[in-house]
Amino acid sequence: MSDEPGPIAGKFLKSLRQFRKRRDHDLADVIAGGRRAQALQKTVANEKTLAGFHPAHAIYVYAQNQVSVLSEQITELPELAPFVGLIAPAEDEYMPGGPPMSPLTTSYFTCWAFFDAAFGRPHRETIGTCILAMLRELDSPPDLIRVVEQMQHSRMGLFVLEEQDGDVVVLRELRTDERRRCVAPSGHRGRPGELWYVRALPPALDTDGPGVAFTTPHVIVRPGVDDWLAYLRRTLPKTGEADDRRAYESLLKYGLKSNYWNEYVFEACVNHTAGAICLAGLPDVAESRPHSRASRG
Asked: pLDDT, tens digit, for every residue of 7-51?
C-alpha cells in the first residue's frame, strides 16, 4: 500500500491548496473550523474521558475520533463523492451500531468505512488515505499522523486465542502464524482455542506495550480452524495476488468485493454477549450462514 496520494487525494489536495490561497468561503466552512466544524470537534474524546481507557486503547480512540470529525467535514466535498457512494448504501443495508440492531458494531463499521472501503486500483484509496494526505499537507502533529497511518495500514484478521494474561490476550493469526499481545477493551477474554475475527492494532507509536483488539471480537463458534484454513486455500487465489501473504492481507482488508465481510458478519451472527458477537458459517458457503438468503429458503 503506497503512501503517495492517489487520484482522489490529489484532487482533494488541489482544492485544499486553492482554498488556502483564496480563502474560499464554502470550503472554509467545511475544512477551516466553521461553526459546524467546531461543534464536531467537541465530540472528540477529551483527556478526562480518555483517562478511563487503557493507554494502549486511548491513543487509538483519540485518533479515531479525529478521523471521524475530519471525515464528517471532507466527505461533503465533491472530490470524495466516490466514498460516499460506497459507504452510505452499506450503512443503510447493515444498520451498524451493535446488537441487538446489528452485529456490525460502530467501531467495526467506522474502521471499515474510513480505512478499508477502497476505491480504484492500483491505489485503493480510502477516506483514511485522503485524511492522511491532508494531515501531511497541513503539517499536523507527527504523532497523530503516525497513529492514523497505523490505523490505515491495519485490517481485520482471523486469530486463534492462545492465552490470557490479565487484561491482555495473546492471539495467533491464521495463515501468518504471527502472535500479538493485545488489550481486549470489550471485556471478552474468551477461552484458549477460540477463533476471533477482530482488528488487532499494533502498539501505538511503536511502544513496547501491548496492542489493542480495537473492535469487539466476533467469535466464530463454527466451523473450526481446519475449515477456515480450507476456505483460505480456495479463496486466496481469487484475490489476484500472486504472493500468498499479500493475498491473505488483501482478502482480510478488502474482501472480494466492497461489502464482502460486512455481509458475512451480518448473515453469520447467531448470538451476542456484553463483550463479543458470535458468528457461524463461512463467507463462501451461503447455507452455512444462518441469515443468508439460502438458509432462509
From this structure: 999 999 998 888 777 654 444 444 444 444 444 444 456 667 787
CA distance 241 to 245: 9
Predicted model pTM? 0.90
Taking the C-alpha atoms of residue 120 and residue 278, their distance in angstroms, rounded to an integer, is: 33
Cell of 286: 451461503
Distance between CA atoms of residues 9 and 5, nearest Å? 5
- Return phi, psi of residue 132, to 5°: -60, -40
HSE (side-chain half, CA atoms, 13 Å) at 29: 6
Q: What is the pLDDT of residues 81-125, one digit of tens each?
A: 999 999 999 999 999 999 999 999 999 999 999 999 999 887 899
DSSP letter for 32, please. Answer: S
Residues in the chain: 297
Listed by start position, the domains of the chain span: 7-153, 157-296
DSSP secondary structure, 227-280, as one string: HHHHHHHHHGGGG--SSHHHHHHHHHHH-SSTTHHHHHHHHHEEEE-SS-EEEE
Is the model's pLDDT at 229 over the cut of 80? Answer: yes
